[in-house]
Design brief:
InterPro entries: Cupin_2, OryJ/VirC-like, RmlC-like_jellyroll, RmlC_Cupin_sf. Pfam families: Cupin_2. This is Cupin domain-containing protein. The structure is a single chain. The chain is mainly β. Helices cover 6% and strands 37% of the residues. It has one domain: Jelly Rolls (Sandwich). The strands form 3 sheets. A 5-stranded antiparallel β-sheet has the order 3-4-10-5-8, with no helix packed on it. A hairpin with a 4-residue loop joins strand 6 and strand 7. The longest helix is centred in the middle third of the chain and has 11 residues. It is globular.
């Protein structure tokens, strides 16, 4: 059974009681520059740190990657590579769509090695469905299956679905400062 993403958000009222502030199914976002991937931008916090307490909080899901101290929670569903066509369109149009729908998504991409990217984030990833390969810059690949957790510490990497079914990953990204 395919997981249908759902987001439940709680908050604390001024009287101290806890309530459900939201419960819904987020819509996937796709861009032609990354065919076969659906992004579910669930929640995020401002850069610099997070506070909790009373009153509603609004999510900060863009730019795609947080700056230092910010966070992002998202799901990404990767179609099997065998069912994904190459990006169609001129490079300027593809880049404009990304800038509009998912600003920052391609900031760490490497033009000479499609899919490889590096971000200034500490990422926690959990494979929820399917199988996905994590490729590192030395060419090593690690197969992720449901239940596999990944701690990505700002390293150069790429994701590949070589299976027959879609793969669903949950990511928590924490903006970090890169040391030299």
């Amino acid at each position: 059974m395919t997981i249908q993403p759902r987001l439940v958000v709680t908050e604390r009222r001024t009287d101290g009681s806890s309530v459900v502030a939201g419960d819904g199914q987020p819509a996937p976002i796709s861009v032609a520059a990354a065919p076969g991937i659906e992004f579910y931008l669930l929640w995020g916090t401002e850069d610099g740190g997070t506070t909790v307490g009373t009153g509603p909080r609004q999510p900060r899901t863009l730019p795609f990657f947080p700056g230092a101290g910010g966070t992002r929670l998202l799901l990404a569903r990767y179609a099997p590579r065998s069912s994904v066509a190459e990006p169609v369109g001129d490079p300027e149009s593809l880049a404009a769509e990304v800038a509009e729908k998912l600003p920052g998504l391609t900031d760490g991409d490497e033009p000479d090695r499609p899919g490889l990217h590096t971000t200034d984030t500490l990422d926690y990833g959990i494979c929820l469905e399917g199988e996905l390969y994590l490729e590192l810059d030395d060419g090593r690949e690690v197969l992720l299956t449901p239940g596999t957790c990944v701690v990505q510490q700002g390293t150069r990497h790429a994701w590949h679905n070589r299976g027959d079914e879609p793969a669903l990953m949950c990511f928590v990204g924490i903006g970090a400062t890169r040391e030299s």
